[in-house]
Write a structure and sequence with these properties.
16% strand; 4-stranded mixed beta sheet; 46% helix; two-stranded parallel ribbon; alpha/beta
Length: 279
């Protein structure tokens, strides 16, 4: 069991027992660790204590973050969605497939792919000469073959497994340097509306949350919240295109295609990083 799997088990337990405010001893038992070991794991993984982590999971906390994020996101909207950089200075630019590439499904292209560890469990990655075109999370026991979504999005491309390359990409994505900027390019295949939504998602800074309604307004289509949600659900580049930062106005953290627990973990970890000023 890796660190994320231990964290996920604790999150599920906290969700079920939140009203009781379980103590460190109970959480440690769920993770199969000593109290001191679990405490260190939380501090290293999330940047906060288990008690603070529990607060990050509540709907009230999420709604407060929505309110606090509003001014930042309004400024980004006024500036044409050129919002402030992420805390760890990971800059992602998005390149859409041309109409011809969209139609031919990647015919004549080579896409390399592999699997690697991440702070949020095992992930699969796919990339071509232009950048990352696939990033998804999966559970142990899933098929070891090429990711199904990668094949659906690029049905005519030649897929080549490259485990070493996947580990290198994962390191660049999930372990960026604390000083300096990491620049990555995401290459996506989607409709013009989907691409517009994904570009807007890239402007939500780490530590901020946005509602589906705000995102619809940001792309100039107020009232299109449902369509925005559908576009988020079709995002093929998890984490880099941060659809996990979009939640309902109620503060409910649900509907993530890679699992609610994983979305909660991402948001709680980012909130913890923000609270301690990690850069």
């Amino acid at each position: 069991m890796n660190d994320y799997e231990r964290i996920a088990r604790v999150i599920r337990f906290l969700e079920a027992q939140r009203a009781r405010q379980p103590g460190l001893a109970e959480l440690a038992a769920q993770a199969g660790l000593s109290e001191s070991h679990l405490h260190r794991l939380f501090q290293r993984w999330a940047g906060v204590t288990p008690k603070d982590f529990l607060q990050c999971l509540t709907a009230e906390h999420a709604k407060q973050r929505l309110r606090e994020s509003a001014s930042v996101l309004e400024a980004a909207l006024d500036a044409g969605l050129s919002g402030p950089g992420r805390l760890h200075d990971l800059l992602v630019t998005l390149e859409a497939a041309s109409p011809g590439e969209f139609k031919d499904g990647g015919e004549g292209q080579e896409i390399r792919w592999g699997r690697a560890e991440s702070p949020f469990g095992m992930c699969s990655l796919g990339w071509n000469a232009r950048g990352i075109c696939h990033l998804a999370f999966y559970e142990h026991g899933d098929s070891d073959g090429p990711p199904g979504q990668l094949g659906e999005d690029w049905p005519r491309a030649r897929l080549v497994r490259d485990q070493h390359g996947a580990k290198e990409w994962a390191a660049r994505i999930f372990q960026p340097p604390r000083n300096g900027r990491t620049e990555l390019r995401a290459v996506v295949r989607g409709t013009p509306f989907q691409v517009k939504v994904w570009r807007a998602l890239l402007r939500i800074p780490e530590g901020c949350l946005a509602s589906y309604g705000w995102l619809a307004e940001a792309i100039g289509q107020p009232g299109a919240s449902r369509a925005v949600g559908a576009a988020c659900g079709r995002n093929a580049v998890a984490y880099l295109i941060p659809c996990h930062r979009v939640i309902r106005e109620t503060g409910a953290v649900q509907g993530y295609r890679w699992g609610t627990v994983r979305k909660q973990a991402m948001l709680a970890r980012e909130s913890g990083r923000l609270s301690v000023g990690v850069s």
